[in-house]
Design goal:
This protein is 54% helix and 16% strand. By secondary structure, the chain is α+β, with helices and mostly antiparallel strands. α14 crosses α22 and α21 packs antiparallel against α22.
Length: 837
Amino acid sequence: MQRAPDLLPLQPVAGSTWLYALRRLRRGWKSGDLLILAAALALAVAATGSVGAFTERVRLALESQSGEALGGDARVRGREPLPEALRGELQGQGLRLSAVTTFPSVAIAGERSSLVSVKAVEAGYPLRGELRLSEAPYAPARPASGAPPRGSVWVDARALQELGLSVGQPLQLGRLSLTVAALIDFEPDRGGGFSDLGPRLIIGQADLAEAGLLVEGSRASYQWLLAGPAEALAIARERIEADPELRYETPREARQELARALDRAGLFLDVAGLAAALLAAAAVALTARAQGVALRNEVALLKTLGARRGFLLRGLSLQMLLLGLAAGGLGVLLAAAGQGVIAAALAGALEVALPAPSPWPLLAAYALGLLLMLGFALPPLLEATATPPLRVLARDLVPQPSRYVPLLALAAVAVLLLVQTGAVDLALTVLVGAALAAGALAGLAMAAVRLLAPLRRSVGAGLRFGLGNVARRQAATVGQVVALGLALLALLLVSVVREDLLETWRGRLPPEVPNQFLINIQNEQVEPLRAFLAARGVADAPLWPLARARLIGLNGVEVSEESFEDPETRRWINREFNLSWTDRFGDDNQLLSGDWWDEAARGQPWVSAEDYAVERLGLKLGDTLTLDFAGWQTTLTVVNTRKVSWDSFRPNFFLVTPPGAIEAAPRQWLTSFYLPPAQRGLLLELAREFPNITALDLEAALNQVRGIIDRVVRAVEFVFLFALLAGLLVLMAAINGTREERRREAAVLRTLGARTATLRAGLLAEYATLGLLAGLVAACAAQGIAWALAERAFEIPYGPRPLLWLIGAVSGTALVTLLGWLSMRRVLSTPPRAILG
């Protein structure tokens, strides 16, 4: 007989709600009824908190490491010397500063001279990364220690070539006579763009004033590199951006290819963490549903004794709040320990120092746990308070479903997605995909129930029993298939992200992606250069024309720097644009509006504008640009807009025309190709054969992006394991939700003479069927969501993966069958009298 619950005065009095809630908590804890729900909620907080804290540390570490591409965490730029008062103010906030001044000048060695790009640095340069020096071109390099000593200069290989110097010889720079002390092998903040391409000379700031090169009107760029805590950098940014004469830049803003890589890294980590969060929410929801079903008998009994529904609503709500606060606190402690374990386990694999953990992800996980309690755990219990008192006599009476329960759950899911991803598009993609998957699972389960009904008559007793359960309990079968399928969907989604999307991203930068760019190629050098490269085994080196122009008119109206209010646009418009022409765009160009042209467009005065140019100039189809190419002017019409994947490391341009449209303009050429490390001597031959051609080595920049990808792959692999454990808990919760019902059913059948082997075969057949259905639809849904993420969020190609369907079917069948057997084996050994007595 069921023991009557602890009774209270049935009319609410002061403190009676608290007493009811506390007594119910105590009784549920002793019996273990609430233990499962508390464990599920604690796991939810632990999963989201540990993954959130870990991914934030990885993200911050990757952001910090990207500072190596800038020489610091950020930089401040201005056209005039930066105010010393501001420097003292920033240093007072705990920031380290290093002044850098760059300007063009002329270096002289004997009878030779060369236009050079001079960089004057302080002893602390660079604040992030390292400057590497060597004694000869392509010789072993060593890290630089501080700035060049007084009276010495570091130069790059091109400067040596043009001035006919070697290390140890002197050169003249303004009033200074400097000794070449070393060769620049790698300069972290030079980047891979087509600006500041003159031969590089690095001197110390102490020599700058003595050189007498900077006077009023000099074309110099004054910079401070900054490094320090994120809070101090944020204050510095706010202070600097208030001054229109200064510009604050982060690695993301200065290096587009790194910005793109970091953005994608964040998305991958978000999706992995999102899967863990959804699995944790599913565990809470399934466990709470079972609790709500078990509560119906108690509610019916209390109502017969005079308890009102309002009293029960307040008591159960308070009980859930207390349980949520306690379980959430435990989850936070587990999350704090868990992220430490994850970081310690991956410290060596990630090859990057992780910053100290922040409390915010843990607090967010705690709040998220309370949200899960409100959206998933509380509604089934509140719905149980509508149970009619007559249920004490007729156990088949159930409360009417509340229309608010699914709305609360949906709202909780939406908030969870937004909190976890921070991106509406990404959250909406996953939410719509999960909703479609749930609908498909429900529809397939309903169809399968009807198809299995006639099949059960032609199989053995065990299979007939199992398939009969699937066909007979239609609502329960549909609910279980949906729950199991969504759990498998989350697991498969993490697997797809890990195996497919990450590998596709990694495949965008294969080992033989072009790592050498040659620019400043003259018209008469095009064919000789082709022959030179072909003779040395470099066959794939397409040459692109390059013309430079200034924008002088927009839609027939004359424009200048003062025509625009946006500071970024004013800076951008103040320099020459690089244009090229082609009749075929690569797959790293995505059409946004208009149509591509073909060979028939030759000579048409058209232009294709990249998304950045569209944003800066407010361009739309049909707008006209008037450009000045060193005295030759033309007007072009915008006929399409596109978005470029700048992290593809292929030649690309903001503005492109059809062939023949601007061929009257002065031009140069550029090319790119892959050069293996063993053949780097080719660059020396190139410098001797074509001394004016500039070679840009992008291997370091490529390695920076590859390093980000590799670290994200390792991080997602570990998060995948964590999500796998959470998914297994969800599957167990889904199976255990019907455990009591199956125990009673097995007891009745054994009383009627059914053998244990028959019951075992029936249960295994039932779970295998549920797992097969759930796995198949979960695989299809995972592929659909992965395709949407690849196209809309990651912008990488993605195609069908038929093997995923097989993996989903097999893993779903195996997992659900195994967990079902582990959960039900005690049921089969329970004597009937223990249940029916």
